[in-house]
Write a structure and sequence with these properties.
Elements lengths: L2 H6 L4 H12 L5 E4 L7 E5 L10 E5 L5 H14 L2 H5 L4 H12 L5 E3 L5 E3 L5 H18 L1 H4 L1 H8 L1 H14 L5 H24 L2 H34 L8 H13 L4 H4 L5 H13 L1
Antiparallel strand pairs: 1-2, 2-3, 4-5
Helix pairs in contact: 2-11, 5-11, 6-11, 9-10
């Protein structure tokens, strides 16, 4: 993942911030534009340490020097372990899961009409389903999770033996009725034991948290943009979807001055729409 820093620092501020967030946001790094007129600079914020403290680094993007790239790489390397100090989180698991998730970016799907559709053209609900599938696949392919059934069995071996001994003493197993009762109690208490085993297993929680953080860091920005677009479609008429000016006017009139809602519908007149769009382009 470190190689990505070199490529990102060749970009302008906005795309650099977006790609840094995609790569390292799940580790709790923060990235924002420095808003330095005439300069391409971004601010990196480290994850908080156990005392709640953090560090910041302002770095040039767009043709940075070798030394600046090295400074950025060292900053990421120095602080990427902070999240594991404050949460159940593992850096290696995160990086492996992120790389795994990234392999899904070029997948092609078939819609209801059997028409091929790329990941970038999925709508929000489709992409959310796709991301959930990636999380599931990444989790199942993790070595610790793949062997977890045996881990639980080994971890609860003494508990299970003690429980079986207790049930044999508690129930007269010469009758089928008591055998059934013993089996029911066995299943119930073992299920509780399994649940408690998972809840108290920091390694398990670390793996799951790290995988989720990685996959949603990789696709979270896309999900947010598609979610916002979905809400825009519900909030605004289709004909003003691509005009911030029109959406601002619509929101002001329809939601802040509802008495004018009926009058505003007149803007669907093509000539009036064109006038406002021209005004928007001049602004």
């Amino acid at each position: 993942m470190a190689d990505g820093i070199t490529n990102i620092l060749g970009l302008e501020e906005k795309p650099a911030v977006r790609q840094f967030r995609q790569l390292y946001g799940g580790m709790d790094f923060g990235f924002r534009e420095a808003f330095a007129p005439g300069l391409n600079r971004i601010v990196m914020t480290s994850p908080k340490d156990i005392n709640g403290d953090f560090e910041e680094l302002t770095i040039n993007t767009k043709n940075p020097s070798e030394s600046e790239i090295k400074i950025a790489q060292d900053f990421i390397s120095k602080y990427k372990g902070n999240k594991s100090k404050t949460q159940t989180f593992d850096v290696d698991t995160y990086e492996n899961a992120w790389t795994f998730a990234d392999t899904y970016k070029n997948e092609t799907f078939l819609d209801e009409n059997e028409t091929p559709i790329s990941v970038e053209n999925l709508d929000y609900d489709q992409l959310k389903e796709h991301v959930d599938l990636i999380v599931n696949n990444a989790t199942e392919s993790n070595e610790y999770i793949a062997n977890y059934q045996q881990t639980m069995k080994d971890g609860l071996k003494d508990f299970e033996a003690k429980l079986l001994s207790e049930l044999k003493t508690k129930y007269d197993l010469t009758s089928q009725e008591n055998v059934d009762k013993a089996n029911e109690e066995y299943k119930s208490r073992m299920n509780v034991a399994y649940d408690n085993f998972v809840k108290n297993d920091d390694k398990y929680k670390s793996v799951v948290n790290s995988i989720n953080s990685a996959v949603y860091s990789r696709f979270g920005g896309d999900l947010k943009r598609k979610f916002d677009k979905k809400n825009v479609k519900e909030l605004y008429p289709d004909w003003m979807e691509n005009s911030d000016f029109l959406k601002g006017v619509y929101k002001n009139i329809v939601y802040e001055m509802p008495n004018y809602k009926e009058q505003f519908r007149g803007l669907k007149n093509a000539d009036q729409i064109e006038i406002i769009q021209k005004k928007n382009r001049r602004a």
